[in-house]
TrEMBL record:
Family under the similarity heading: Belongs to the eukaryotic NMN adenylyltransferase family.
One Gene Ontology term from the biological process aspect of the record: NAD+ biosynthetic process
Name of the molecule in the record: Nicotinamide-nucleotide adenylyltransferase
Region entry Disordered, spans: 242-271
Protein's organism: Baudoinia panamericana (strain UAMH 10762)
Purpose of the protein: Catalyzes the formation of NAD(+) from nicotinamide mononucleotide (NMN) and ATP. Can also use the deamidated form; nicotinic acid mononucleotide (NaMN) as substrate with the same efficiency. Can use triazofurin monophosphate (TrMP) as substrate. Can also use GTP and ITP as nucleotide donors. Also catalyzes the reverse reaction, i.e. the pyrophosphorolytic cleavage of NAD(+). For the pyrophosphorolytic activity, can use NAD(+), NADH, NaAD, nicotinic acid adenine dinucleotide phosphate (NHD), nicotinamide guanine dinucleotide (NGD) as substrates.
Associated pathway: Cofactor biosynthesis; NAD(+) biosynthesis; NAD(+) from nicotinamide D-ribonucleotide: step 1/1; Cofactor biosynthesis; NAD(+) biosynthesis; deamido-NAD(+) from nicotinate D-ribonucleotide: step 1/1
Superkingdom of source: Eukaryota
Amino acid sequence: MSLDDYTFPHSRLRRRITTPDRTPLVLIACGSFSPITFLHLRMFEMAADYARFNTEFEVVGAYLSCVGDAYKKTGLVKAEHRINMCSLAVAQSSWISVDPWEALHEEYLETAKVLDHFHHEINEVLGGVETPEGRKQCRIALLAGADLIQTMSTPGVWADKDIEYILRNFGAFIVERSGTDIDEALSTLQTYKSNIFVIQQLVQNDISSTKIRLFRRRDMSIRYLVPEPVVNYIEEHDLYEEDGAASTGSGSGDKRKPGESKGVAGPSSAG
Ligand SMILES: Nc1ncnc2c1ncn2[C@@H]1O[C@H](COP(=O)(O)OP(=O)(O)OP(=O)(O)O)[C@@H](O)[C@H]1O
Ligand SMILES: NC(=O)c1ccc[n+]([C@@H]2O[C@H](COP(=O)(O)O)[C@@H](O)[C@H]2O)c1
């Protein structure tokens, strides 16, 4: 797909809410997703619960937006693969979509521009959502881990005007992450605190894409850390093997299912 063929995916966006006192909310997770993991998916569920119990928002949809290839971060496989893996991961979801718009750009797009794109498509083109009291604009908000918000106080990573623009106009739902001191991460962002919602992880989960890539390079199982169709996709396309680790899986004598540990069903393990 190219930008010329692009259309905004909105089939999973709920277009009507019945609670007039609530503000419709659309969560946007921006990231590398190389590859997407169960933790990334879990972030959406945590944020939806948080919004329902602790805010006056009502979630009407959510999007994964993969960063483009120009981001050039370590371990970033081609955007086409990352979009495909994200699409497989949310294939069964009724409310999470993948928007390829950001990744279809050759140049790097700052997150502020990505959020503007969602505001444009959802509120200007589609006209927001219907409520018993007429149409309402959706609140578009960034969904991110604490490490991402921490980079906002790291000099040179974000332009000050972008931080202000994002946190004033959109806001952020931030999932705590082990290894990141959330209070410290937020210390320079106090001006925007009414627009930053911090979500505690009640079940600690520290899956990261880095660990998945490391496991792949070491020829270790990644099953049950990423969705099964994503495991299969990674195997089929020989992704994340760049350190020369032996390929797992489809060799003729290997009875293992894709991504499964070598320790369970190797061809000659039955001695
Ligand atoms: N274990 C985690 N806990 C909380 N947030 C997370 C976790 N893993 C990823 N995130 C968040 O998910 C979003 C997408 O992150 P990204 O694609 O960079 O994943 P990652 O697992 O951190 O990747 P990498 O390991 O390659 O740095 C970011 O906002 C990041 O903060
Ligand atoms: N200046 C910016 O807009 C800016 C800076 C750093 C990260 N980000 C975004 O944060 C997301 C996650 O980045 P990492 O994978 O590097 O943690 C990406 O979508 C990236 O585009 C944006």
